[in-house]
């Protein structure tokens, strides 16, 4: 099991929370909430070791488009990078509703 943390600059405050996905069967959950500062903070708990650079690449790509101050926790059980990107987009969409 590994834990990663990443921080990204933000342009706007987030206003809502979101929870999408489940942990288990090769999936992951994403918990999103407003950040107390002008930074996006990401914490990843994963059952798969050795994929730190893959996580960084997926998040770097995501945060070039999404620039809100959020705190995101990701609990992973072996999801693919495509599933990670999908769940992040779902969390953003849910937080807008």
Automatic annotation (TrEMBL):
Keyword Phosphoprotein found: yes
Domain of life: Bacteria
Localization: Cytoplasm
Modified residues (O-(phosphoribosyl dephospho-coenzyme A)serine): 25
Modification after translation (UniProt): Covalently binds the prosthetic group of malonate decarboxylase.
Any Pfam family: ACP
Keyword Phosphoprotein: yes
Keywords for the protein's UniProt record, in alphabetical order: Cytoplasm, Phosphoprotein
Protein name listed in UniProt: Malonate decarboxylase acyl carrier protein
Taxonomic source organism: Telmatospirillum siberiense
């Amino acid at each position: 099991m590994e834990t990663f943390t990443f921080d990204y600059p933000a342009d706007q405050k987030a206003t809502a929370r979101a929870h999408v996905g489940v942990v288990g069967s090769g999936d992951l959950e994403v918990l999103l909430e407003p950040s107390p500062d002008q930074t996006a903070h990401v914490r990843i708990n994963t059952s798969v070791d050795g994929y730190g650079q893959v996580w960084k690449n997926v998040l770097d790509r995501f945060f070039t488009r999404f620039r809100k101050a959020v705190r995101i926790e990701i609990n992973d059980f072996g999801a693919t990078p495509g599933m990670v990107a999908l769940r992040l987009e779902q969390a953003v969409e849910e937080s807008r509703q």
